[in-house]
Amino acid sequence: MTPLVPGTRIETDLPGRLDRLPWSRWHWRVVIALGVTWVLDGLEVTLVGAVASVLGETDTLHLSEREIGAAASAYLFGAIAGALIFGRLTDSLGRKKLFLVTLGVYLTATLLTALSFNFWTFALFRALTGAGIGGEYAAINSAIDELLPARVRGRADLAINGTYWLGTAIGAASTLVLLDADLIPHRFGWRLAFGLGALLGGSILIIRKHLPESPRWLLLHGRVPEAQASVEEIERHVAESVELPPAPPPRPLVVKGSVGFGQIAHVLLQKHRKRTALGLSLMIAQAFAYNAIFFTYALVLARFYQIPGDKVGLYLLPFAAGNLLGPLVLGHLFDSIGRRKMIAITYGLSGILLAITGLLFERGLLTATTQTALWSAVFFVASAAASSAYLTVSELFPVELRGMAIALFYAVGTATGGLAAPAIFGALIQTGSRARVMDGYLFGAGLMIAAALVAAIIGVDAEGKSLEELNPDA
Question: What value, to the nearest 5°, has the Cα angle with vertex 464 and ends 459 and 470?
Answer without folding.
Answer: 55
